[in-house]
Design goal:
The protein is of the alpha/beta class. Strand 2 and strand 3 form a beta hairpin. The chain is globular, with a radius of gyration of 13 Å.
Length: 126
C-alpha cells in the first residue's frame, strides 16, 4: 500500500476545486490530501496564517506528515527549508488543486528546481 500526503497552495479555500496559488508564502491555505494507491482518500484545509520565518509553513506541513508540496512558485528560503525536511516540491502549471493532484498521481509533473524559484525581496509581507 502506497500512501502519500500532498499539500497544494490555494488562494481560496474551496477544497479540490480551489485554484492553485501562484506563490507559496502568500497563499491563503494549503489543501492537504492523503493519497492511497493513487486515489484521494482524505482532503483537509490547513490555513496559512501569518509567519515570522520562511521555514515556518514548511515545518508546519512536515509536522502534518506532508511529503509532497505542489505550488506555482516559491522563494529560495522556503525551498531550501523544504529540501532540509525532505519535502518534494512540484511545480504546478495552474488549474485547480484537484487537477494538480491528478497530474501528479499520473506522473505528469515537473520537480521545482532552483532555476524556477521566485526572486526574494519585493512583495513579501511577513
Amino acid at each position: 500500500m502506497s500512501v502519500e500526503r500532498i499539500a497544494v497552495t490555494a488562494d481560496i479555500d474551496n477544497g479540490l476545486d480551489s485554484p492553485v496559488s501562484g506563490h507559496f508564502g502568500h497563499c491563503k491555505a494549503f489543501i492537504v490530501s492523503t493519497i492511497e494507491d493513487g486515489k484521494i482518500i482524505e482532503v483537509e484545509s490547513v490555513p496559512n496564517g501569518g509567519h515570522t520565518s520562511c521555514a515556518e509553513p514548511v515545518n508546519k506541513l512536515a509536522s502534518l506528515g506532508v511529503n509532497v508540496l505542489i505550488t506555482m512558485g516559491m522563494g529560495g528560503r522556503p525551498y531550501m527549508a523544504a529540501q532540509q525536511v525532505g519535502l518534494a516540491v512540484v511545480k504546478s502549471s495552474g488549474g485547480t488543486v484537484g487537477e494538480a493532484i491528478h497530474s501528479y498521481i499520473a506522473g505528469r509533473h515537473e520537480m521545482m528546481s532552483r532555476d524556477g524559484l521566485c526572486g526574494g525581496g519585493g512583495g513579501h509581507n511577513h
